Structures are given as C-alpha cells and as structure tokens.
Amino acid sequence: MEITILQPRFKDSSHFKDFWIKGNGKELIDFSGAQPSFKDFEKFAPYYYHVDEIGDEVAKDVYLTKKFHEASREIEGYIRNGISENDDVPESVKKLLLQTQKIPDWLDYDLIKSGAELCMRSNLDSLISLRDYCLMGGYDYAYLNKPLIATEALKKGAVKRLSETLDFWVNVTRYDALEIHKKGYEFAIKTRLIHSYARLSIKKYYKNWDTENWGEPINSWDMMATYIGFSLVFLHSLKKLGNTFSPQEEKGIFHLWKYVGYLLGIPENLLPNDKKQATEYFYLWTSIQPPADKDSVLLAHSLLNESLENPILKYQFQRKNLRYLHICCTWFLLDDDVCRRLQIPDVANRNVFPYTKWFINKIYDKTVSRKARIRKGNKDQMKVLTDYLKITQNSNFH
C-alpha cells in the first residue's frame, strides 16, 4: 500500500483561519503566548497513521480470545496485583504492564496533586467545561468523530457516553488516583485497552473506513488532540467562566494529563508540558480536520438532548431548563461559527446564566477558602457521578 504523505490540507480554509484569527483559537494564542507555525508539521503528521500497537496486542491476546466481561476481569486482576518478569501471563500483557508500572523519570506527584485539586476546586464548572466546551467543541472536527460513528455511539446514546467519560475523568483526577495499582491508574489502562478493542473492531467490521483521510481509527495524533481538550481547552473554559488558578495548578493540569496520556500509550513527544506547547501542537492538528458534517450535528444534538432523556431530574420542566442552561453555556464557551455549524439552537437571554456564573465565581474565589472549595467540589462531583452510574447501570435504561 502506498504511504500517504499528509498535508495541512485545511490551513487555507475559512473555518481554520477564522478559528485562529478571530475565534477561540486566537484566545488560546493570547492565553498561552503560543507562536503557531507549520515548521514542525512533518514531525507530527506520521502519528495520524500511528496506533498503540502494544495495547492492540493485548486486545488480540485477551479480549478477542474470550467473552468481554471475562477478559475485563482478567485484566483488572493483572492491573490491581501487578505483574513481574517471571509471571505466567501473555507476553503482550507483560510488556504493557511492565511499561506502565515503571514510573517515568519526569513524574512529579506534587504537580499531579495540584492539577487534581484544580479539577476538584472548580466544582460543577469542571463538568460544564468538559461537556459544553471540550466534548461539544470536539464534535466540530468531522474526522475526529468517525470512530464514534463507526462504533455506533449514537445508538448507545449520550447518557451512557457522558456517564463513561465522567467516570473516567473523576477517577483519574482524585487524590493519589494515579499511583500504581490505584483506581485512576486502573481506569487509564482499561481505557487504553478499550480503545484498542474498538480500533480492532472498526478495522475488522467497518468496511468504509477511509484511512487516507481519517487516519487510523483512534490514532495517536487524534489521541493527543483529545487529551489537549482535557488540559488546555479545559483551562481556557474555566478562565472564561471566571475561575482563577495558580501557576502551580496550571502546571499541574498539564502534568496530570501528560501522565494519563503516557499510561494510555500516547507517544511521549506528543504530550505537551504547558499551554504554549499545547496550543502549538493543537494548531497543527486542526489543520487536517474539516468542519462539522452531518454526523457532527447528530452527535451534538444527541448531547444537547441528553438532558431531556436523563431521568436524574424527575420533572420535564427541570430537564428542559437544564437543556436551556447547557445551550447558554455552549454559545458562551464556543465560537458562534461552531455553534451554527453544529446547529445549536439559539435561545433568549443566553448570556445571563454564564455571566451570573462568572460574577459568582469572582466572589466565591475571594470569600471561600481553597480547602473548603476542594472539599465541596469533590463531594458535588462525586454526587453527579453516582447519579449517572445509578441510571446507566440500571439495565432497563437505554
């Protein structure tokens, strides 16, 4: 097969230029002091056709040789108990776990703690940022969404998808969660293997996969962009909602997600250390992504309507109000062009709630201690997660 040489194919398109000259991209440049250019494009481009081969081997050896729940249980045992060179386990499992059990020289647990504290301290703003900026904004990148479409995420529904994302995010952002064998570490490894399982399934069953344009399914470059969503885009969203953070917390967020990315098998040279690097890396990746297509619109509306379908709130008027608030935040956090492409409905007084939030955050920041905010944020986030898990683990819910 002829090797594709990737070009920054959308760099002259209006959606790319508008984003980086007058939209959120410009705000990211101003926020980070980045100096984006295409000089490093050729260093990054090959990762569009690169995947986590170690994870794929484990998926072949374990997940494809037995029932999914049996394979998951087996993998959980290895992760929780650890393995050594002499253990009688498949070579692929040994290779993956010996790699992830080795703590990299650059890892700083104090920085990870600072990043986790910011995630907790920002309370429900963290969850608004993840949902209405990171997740919704990601739907504007048409090729990035193709694995979701191929694995029939729309049939599974947004409630289940949100629940899984929340479960992962909460569990990797608590105190000490990423220490070897702890819960966040386990979530990272299991997520890595689910990515591999999904990739192998797409390659086997989805005959229309367009590798040249879409890259390999769940490729390393797309993974980098996704994890920049959890760090750079997340921070930018918190800032827009009126939250402040210290230089230590900011460094901590990037360090936390660098380590999560490392555990997930993303090549280390794709994992940014700070907001400047992250913006410059993200700039290159966005040049290969076309704007929202009809699949993007379907995913966006599935997420918007999640509030109406989700039985956590008992009454219809409460669900409609929650949907309205999410629409307000989406318009506030994303570019108008992106909202129009995703066909986000326009609503009356859409800035009232986000500006009220911004104002309250400014007061809250000055009047409530950092420790109290971390404690309350952790409690409130765990409550939201518990509610979601109760709903989605009920087998009657679809």
TrEMBL record:
<dbReference type="InterPro" id="IPR018713">
    <property type="entry name" value="MPAB/Lcp_cat_dom"/>
</dbReference>
<dbReference type="InterPro" id="IPR037473">
    <property type="entry name" value="Lcp-like"/>
</dbReference>
<feature type="domain" description="ER-bound oxygenase mpaB/mpaB'/Rubber oxygenase catalytic">
    <location>
        <begin position="147"/>
        <end position="348"/>
    </location>
</feature>
<dbReference type="GO" id="GO:0016491">
    <property type="term" value="F:oxidoreductase activity"/>
</dbReference>
<protein>
    <recommendedName>
        <fullName>ER-bound oxygenase mpaB/mpaB'/Rubber oxygenase catalytic domain-containing protein</fullName>
    </recommendedName>
</protein>
<dbReference type="Pfam" id="PF09995">
    <property type="entry name" value="MPAB_Lcp_cat"/>
</dbReference>
